[in-house]
Design goal:
The structure is a single chain. This protein is α+β, with helices and mostly antiparallel strands. It has a single domain, classed as ph1033 like fold (Roll). The protein contains four helices and ten strands, in the order E-H-E-H-E-E-E-E-E-E-H-H-E-E. Strands 1, 2, 3, 4, 5, 6, 7 and 8 form an eight-stranded mixed sheet that branches. Strands 9-10 form a two-stranded antiparallel sheet. The protein starts with 10 loop residues before the first strand and ends with a strand.
């Protein structure tokens, strides 16, 4: 039986407004589906995530339609944060890569999840979905992000039966 800690990283698209993504990027975390824990439990340390933002602001009418942040999951389980007013969302820590925000439209014909699929946007409603390594590489290249550097920063090292992760660079 293989040790799940040494499985190849999976690739994900998360969906949120750009203002929320930027707040998470600046704070070193991610949050999806209005703070639900269950989607975050699907992710493993080392998995790659890229955020797609349909709008600039939450519930805004301003269309952005861009990838806003990309990185890899840090070690640790989802944790809850009290933001006041009874809102206690779950988060995961992320090592965000240096990247430029990039519109999705020029890539739609090349991404496997959207090519030849006129209803590609439907899956965005789930807030988090898995994509191929091909799509992640294409998005990372368009954003100018170095995933190899991210992977090296997230590389697992077995020490005394414990998994540790290199600190973010």
């Amino acid at each position: 039986m293989s040790d799940p800690a040494f499985l190849a990283p999976r690739n994900w698209i998360a969906v949120a407004s750009a203002e929320h993504v930027r707040r998470g990027r600046d704070g070193g975390f991610m949050q999806v589906c209005h703070g639900k824990a269950a989607p975050l439990r699907r992710l493993r340390p080392g998995d790659r995530v890229v955020y797609y933002s349909p709008t600039e602001q939450f519930q805004g009418k301003d269309k952005l339609r861009a990838f806003v942040a990309i990185g890899s999951l840090a070690h640790g389980a989802p944790y809850q944060v009290d933001m006041g007013g009874g809102f206690c969302p779950y988060r995961r820590d992320v090592r965000w890569a240096r990247a430029k925000e990039t519109p999705i439209t020029p890539m739609l014909g090349d991404l496997e999840f959207s090519a030849d699929n006129r209803n590609w946007g439907y899956q965005l409603r789930f807030g988090l979905f898995e994509i191929s390594a091909h799509d992640m590489a294409l998005i990372a290249a368009a954003m100018g992000a170095d995933l190899a550097q991210q992977d090296a920063a997230a590389r697992e090292v077995q020490i005394n039966g414990c998994i540790s992760f290199a600190p973010a660079g």
